[in-house]
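Researcher: Here's my situation. A collaborator sent me these components and asked whether they could plausibly form a single complex. I don't have experimental data yet, so a predicted model of the whole assembly would be a useful starting point for our discussion.
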Amino acid sequence: MLNFVKQLSHESVVELIGLVSLPKKPLTATSQQVEIHVTKMYCLSRSLPNLPLAVVDAARSEADIEKSVKDGKPAARVLQDTRLNNRPLDLRTPANQALFRIQCHVQIAFREFLLSKGFLEIHTPKLMAGSSEGGSAVFRLDYKGQPACLAQSPQLHKQMAICGDMRRVFEVGPVFRAEDSFTHRHLCEFVGLDVEMEIRMHYSEIMDLVGDLFPFIFTKIEERCPKELESVRRQYPFHSLKFLPQTLRLTFAEGIQMLKEAGEEVDPLGDLNTESEKKLGQLVLEKYKTEFYMLHRYPSAVRPFYTMPCEDDSNYSNSFDVFIRGEEIISGAQRIHDPELLEKRARECGIDVKTISTYIDAFRYGAPPHGGFGAGLERVVMLLCALNNIRKTSLFPRDPKRLAP
Ligand code: 4AD
């Protein structure tokens, strides 16, 4: 049997028959918890002898690599591209196994919370005649001779779904962005966590929901995934997210003021760039002791065409972004439900109104005030575990240069 074992290459899949027993040595947290006294062994699938990536190397933490270097036995450092080129092998590391279990639990908690609040889960089409978010980040394709796009979000259809008894809906589904930016937090395909709901009194109802939903998710992950969090931490050390029982809400103007007081140059009617968002995240953490907060009342000019302007000042809008550790994970807003204003805003934003005429027409038959938000699942998990790249939390990432495996 030993000769047979010696011929097996790493990663081969075997079936063992034997007696499971407790090890003779006393158990410790890191020691093997059981032993198998093998009587028979079958190889179900033999791996090639020369692997393009050794899973033991891919599982090494920075601390482990540093220790090996100190001990004079330098360990292999696996580059991200090597990992992603060989993703089926890379996925076998304990940290990766844990990350996708955490991702699954984020979705479970998202669903659980929304279903308990009377939301209905829906599925909107991913093939569309026009773009849903505007801008150039659209994958265009030929739909049997008709120009079409891949959905940049479920935005337009989730709004059209708000009718009759379907007053509150949500969706977990793929979102496509032809992003040109090659950043640590943009993918060309990601999983959108989207919500849309009727507004009864004020659009702050949506922020109330976000303020309860996400802390619920964070708490459930801590409760349900302690082993997984530990596994991720062993390879990528991080501290648990600091968040308040009542989610902090600041206006965009207050955020700008904090940045200005800290000596940053920011445009009060422009968008925050990644550095300003990070800086504001630090300032908020120092002042309010939270790494999860919302900014609302964004300038209209930096929001999509369908965003409702503020009643008292149309330079601002009934919209918000939510941040984890200084990076955006959610954007949300009240939508324009007046078809004339919607058409005007679409034209002003350079959108070909013909391609979204069925969307605009949907509001000509009476539509309740409504709003919602969208989050990116990969980004939520990345920031929850303070990882430095969104590709780590996408099973098979798609970015401007990567379409395989
Ligand atoms: O900010 P975005 O583009 O907003 C929308 O799609 C709106 N329809 C949402 C709404 O209901 N108002 O995207 C929402 C979230 C972002 O906050 C971010 O977490 C994620 O989706 N996201 C991306 N994740 C990965 N790669 C990208 N290229 C992303 N673009 C947005």
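Model: Some features of this prediction you could bring to your collaborator: The chain has a mean pLDDT of 95. The chain has 14 helices and 13 strands.
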